[in-house]
Structures are given as structure tokens and as C-alpha cells.
Amino acid sequence: xxxxxxxxxxxxxxxxxxxxxxxxxxxxxxxxxxxxxxxxxxxxxxxxxxxxxxxxxxxxxxxxxxxxxxxxxxxxxxxxxxxxxxxxxxxxxxxxxxxxxxxxxxxxxxxxxxxxxxxxxxxxxxxxxxxxxxxxxxxxxxxxxxxxxxxxxxxxxxxxxxxxxxxxxxxxxxxxxxxxxx
Length: 182
Fold this sequence. Notes:
mainly alpha, two-stranded antiparallel sheet, 3 helices, single chain
């Protein structure tokens, strides 16, 4: 009998809270359903209307990418100096042989004039040594000139010829430098 009383108490202990929960749900449903007559209807929303306009449309496409030049050129001056003229505009198409820059040629013109002066001096020196060799060759058989003097004159003539060739090469380089300023 003691066991039956404990089981009966447990049932009563769980029935009470369940009954309260059911009554709460019924009351909430009744409160939500009963107020339908008091709710007023909302007015319809305002909608803006426009007429279609006929216009030309420019279709464009956008792509992500990387570009690079087909050909590239490295421009290097053959001579140094100050640029006096730029003969092209940035972004312009240029062809091989087109004038791009002009470099001040005065320094190279002065070098060419100096080389021309040296060439003239060395030609005069060569002419003097040639006449000295010719004189010593005519005087040698008679004994008026020694073999040593003749050898010295021939050596001086050879040295003068070599110096003249070197100066002529310098003159040619100076003239090339003048051409390279354009």
C-alpha cells in the first residue's frame, strides 16, 4: 500500500504543471483569434510608372588582361653630350633611321678641327723628313752624309708616317662623332 501512494503522488505532481501549460496555450490561441474584427486594412502602396524611351545603346565588354608590346627598342646614343633637340613626340610611331634627338655637336666639331690641325702639322713634318731622307741619300755616296744620319732620317720618316696615319684615324673618328650627334 505504501507503494501505491508514492506512485499516485508522482502522477499528481506531473499532472499539475501539464494542466497549467495546456491552459496557457489555449488562452494564447483564444486571444490571437478573437481580435480579427478590430484590424483595419492597409492602404495599397504607391507605385511609380514610367513610359519606355527608345535610345541607341552602346554595347561594351570589359575584360581583365595583360598586354605587352610586340616589339621593343632600346635607344642608346653613340656619343655623349647635351641634347639640343627632341625630334619626336611621346607615343608617336617612329621608323628605323628617323631622327629622334640632336646632341650638341660643338665639342665634336672642335675635336675634328684639332685633328685636322694635327694632320696638317704631321704632313708638314712628313714632307720635311722625306726631303731629309732624299738629301741624305744623294749625299751618302759622296760621303757628305754618314750612314747613321741616313738611318735616323729614314726612321724619322717612318715615325712621321705612323703618326700621320694615327691622326687621320682620329680625324675620321671625330667626323663620325659629329655624324652621331644627329
